[in-house]
Amino acid sequence: LQQDRTGGYKWELLSTGNSLLRRYGHTATAWEHILVIVGGSRLYNKESKRRECLNDIQAFNPIENSWVQLMGEGALLEQRRNHTACLVGKNLLVHGGINGADQYLSDLLGLTLGRVLEKDYRTKPYRWIKVQQKGKAPRKLAYHTPQLVLHQERYRNQDAIGIYTLPEVRLTKPKIEIEGVYFFGGRNEKGPRNTLHILKIGKKPCEWITPDVAGSPPMPRYGHSMTYFSEKNFLVIFGGRNDSNYDLNGNSYLNDVWLLYLEKLTWVQWENKEGLGSVPSARYSFCSTLLGKSILIFGGLSEDNYCRSDIHTLDMEDMRRRFELVIKKKGTFNKDLPTNRSTYRITENDEEIKGLDPSQDLSSLPPYISPVRSPTDKIPDYESGVNAISLPPGPVLEKMIGEEHN
Hints:
About 5% of the residues lie in helices and about 35% in strands. It is built from three helices and 28 strands.
């Protein structure tokens, strides 16, 4: 999926020559301009009565339109599906998941990637390491989401960012209370979770913490998305599934939107009471990625079937304006942010919010959740368990790779 200069989107079917072993429940991570696939599961084998999980490392080069399997060495990565992967500098951090025996995992491994060297990245070995860690680590977990959250000043020396190292910088005004890899939600043997875990990196060993967060957290969920909007300093949670919620509402799938404000670690819920735009249907196991100042949402499973192949966009710039108004209603960013356990909701018909800033007429703002679709281009079939990632350089290219569940 490419975005043109006019802001529209266009699908293009790529012919790669060689193909990837069909799978779902894998991870897809951008490593410079290379897309790295780890693990996943094949279709259910009726003879063995189990799903075969994978632990291979596959790389897709969008410039050459070709796949290559990378060689791993060092620590053994157990075969798995529905795990998480997060790029930390030039290292790929892999956590949790489910193995071929349907057992939940809790291990934490790192894959040392280094820089992409066009001549030898296909043939050089890549080393897996068991990450040294302390603190209260998450229980065995799958279907959760990770995001690396660092002050933007650190990226001026991006080569110095690693699992055990961070570049020294002077922060004139720290905007992030706790730096590290944020993990939210997921499920284990006890059901869906809503705990926020942070892995503090930059020192050996890394340290797990469970921070105190103001505001009531989102409902426990798994198969959701979590996006880091670094420009305005918050994480965005969308959708997912909570099987325990089915008995209450008759629907275990979610399409709510939550923000985690990173300067003071505060949960805020957004409610679309005025019907601005077309909110995506409730879903889980979908894919999402940040494109400019918008989050793109595609595919997934709904209560009854696979979701349609529409693409929905969530305008983060517009959401930021409403978010700031709600925080100002309760207190200021820097001094009076509340710490009680209430939930702050962003609504479009709250007169108190509208009265805070006379120059900002919320009713005049354009809809900021809307489906976008090119009627002249062939769109993919309904998909679930797919992954999306933005790849530089040039026009942003979204690679969505996956296979329907069987």
